Queue: 2 jobs
Job 1
Amino acid sequence: MLNNMIDGARLMYSCRQTMNHVGQFIILIALSVFGCGSPVPTGISEAETFTAGNSQTRFRVETVASGLEVPWAFAWLPSGDMLFTERPGRVRILEQGKLRPEPVYTVPDVEPSSESGLMDVSLHPNFAANDFVYLAYAYRGDGKRVKIVRYKFADGKLAEPKIVIENIPAAPNHAGTRARFGPDGKLYVTTGDATDRQIAQQMNNLGGKTLRLNDDGTVPPDNPFVNQQGSRPEIWSIGHRNAQGLAWQPGSNLMFQTEHGPSGFDGPGGGDEVNIVEAGKNYGWPVVHHDQSRAGMVDPLLLYTPACAPASGAFYNGDKFPDFNGNFLFGCLRGTRIIRVVLNGRNVVRQENLLEGNVGRIREVAQGPDGFIYFSTSNRDGRGRPAPNDDRIMRLVPAN
Ligand SMILES: [Ca+2]
């Protein structure tokens, strides 16, 4: 408790310093909304037991790695080792549960400002045969842009970069980007509106969309807009503001996304969404948001006001938490929790908050090959209140 108070005091001080140095009213507002205004994490002990699902499920939280800087995404190799990204541009590896001190790779042309930088990492579905790893990151091209680059993972390093797609619009904020392979073997990419909201409805622009690509970046001939004149053929769905969670429901293969709603300058705060995303559909931004509806535009499955800032998305189907089977889990930045959604197909049965306020801002959430639920903190992203060992990768393990 005392430690938390000291951490809190230190942070308040560092926030004030930032304000003095920058001296801009807008930064002050942003800090009060996103960073210094949020509560100090209560902290967590590894002996502590938490409950979920009306106390049926008991779990503890273990720290897997610490001293990190905004760990954004995880990908597990067939060996069970975990690759993960840090937003400033580093790919790191946990080998047999231990953090290798030096990075696997540092992206040479990353543009690590504000919300963007190095974001997603994914393995090719046939990684065991081809060793392909995909990174999504912001770089400086003709203005700020995002690209997806494919590498070969060999001898513990990433080599032979090949651009899969580039020149996706980006900005310091709302740069997306998840890039994940779907059950059909295609690469799906969520792109942000790059704080230029109109582009989300423009068919000749890759911003504010979901894209669907072959593994080499070519366009699948069965994409919904390939034959529509004036449309980018890569587009799968439109009208997204900034989706950063992307996962497929086991069994149904439905695509679920989490998406950040407006944050004041581009619409009233809140309106964060979970969507079921299907080919050719329009998810509304910026024409409709929050609880607004319009014919031809898809309403969200779930809405969160005030904002929870959903930053990830994963389905659970492991053997360590039988009660979580088929649940959709995602981490919340501003909302400082993991949200667990119980689903019956397309319908929400109920939801609950896990670890609310305990560890601060939560970004990635994913099921490991061992069936444990891994997540990362994001308290060093400029909007949090980092503990001395932040950022961390942690995991939920059953407590019996
Ligand atoms: Ca929407």
Job 2
Amino acid sequence: MVPPSPPGPTLTPPVVQASPPSPPASPDRQRSALPEVIFAENLCKGCELCITVCPTKILKLDTSRVNIRGYNPAIVYNLAECSGCGSCAKICPDSVITVRR
Ligand code: SF4
Ligand code: SF4
């Protein structure tokens, strides 16, 4: 008969703490960091008010085409410079522009 072996040092298993699950990203954080400037271009009458008011001067009329009303529609040509201020949307008399930040 084999005698019981003397008790050795007790090994304590390492405690692994699971990190808490990350909260889901908010809808704003899921979106691009850049604002969105959306044109309902067939409503545009090319009055250029939005172009005049834009503080970063990134709007212009697209002279390469006309909308169904026969006007060159306003477009944004350098979205990276858009501050998302919303001035273009506010001044447009025909509610052509929607700005999402
Ligand atoms: S949101 Fe402001 S900066 Fe951006 S296009 Fe409109 S007026 Fe210009
Ligand atoms: S203010 Fe409105 S109608 Fe006038 S050019 Fe800009 S988007 Fe078109």
